[in-house]
């Protein structure tokens, strides 16, 4: 398998995409936050000291997707056309974050979706750490990607 981010001498490089065709691309990623049952109850009741946890995490995920190229070395800046971040309670003690990112461009949006899901999960942690420092962020993974030369990928078990 050829490693596209390395040159002939093994040095890191940004992949050249200038000759690639613009195609519709999308990716969906997830992250889960495990917490104490009381923490989830407080989130759902709007009882966290810092405010609306899900609203803040949703905005953080969207902002993170837009800035992925500034955070992850060798990522291309992409003209994103859509970003959706959803946070779903999974009782008794989890929150599932799902991020879907779309663009019409020459390279995929997997890193943007993974970054959005990760930063949204980190924001949940930040918003709730005053009442639950034992939370863990788990199962950050790509669920699906479409478009581009490598085709369509769907994770066989979305909740390993």
Order of helices and strands: EHHHEEHEE
Beta-strand proportion: 25-35%
**Mean of pLDDT:** 93
Percent helix range:
25-40%
Number of beta-strand segments: 5
Structural summary, described in words:
The chain has 160 residues and is an alpha+beta fold. It is built from four helices and five strands; from the N terminus they run βαααββαββ.
Descriptive keywords:
160 residues; alpha+beta; five-stranded antiparallel β-sheet; 5 strands; 29% helix
Q: Short summary of the structure?
A:
This protein is an alpha+beta fold and 160 residues long. The chain has helices at residues 37-45, 53-66, 68-71, 110-128, and strands at 23-34, 80-90, 94-105, 136-146, 153-154. The protein is 29% helix and 30% strand.
Give the topology, please.
Elements: E1 23-34, H1 37-45, H2 53-66, H3 68-71, E2 80-90, E3 94-105, H4 110-128, E4 136-146, E5 153-154
Antiparallel strand pairs: 1-3, 1-4, 2-3, 4-5
Helix pairs in contact: 2-4
């Amino acid at each position: 398998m050829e490693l596209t981010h390395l040159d002939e001498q093994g040095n890191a490089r940004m992949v050249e995409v200038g000759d690639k065709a613009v195609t519709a691309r999308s990716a969906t990623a997830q992250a889960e936050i495990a917490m104490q049952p009381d923490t989830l109850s407080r989130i759902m009741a709007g009882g966290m000291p810092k405010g609306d946890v899900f609203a803040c995490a949703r905005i953080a995920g969207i902002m993170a997707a837009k800035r992925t190229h500034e955070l992850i070395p060798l990522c291309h800046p992409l003209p994103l056309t859509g970003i959706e971040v959803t946070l779903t309670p999974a009782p008794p003690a989890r929150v599932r974050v799902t991020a879907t990112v779309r663009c019409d461009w020459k390279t995929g949006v997997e890193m943007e979706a993974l970054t959005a899901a990760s930063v949204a999960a980190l924001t949940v942690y930040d918003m709730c750490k005053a009442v639950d420092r034992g939370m863990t962020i788990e199962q950050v993974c790509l669920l699906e990607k479409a478009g581009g030369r490598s085709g369509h990928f769907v994770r066989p078990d979305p909740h390993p």
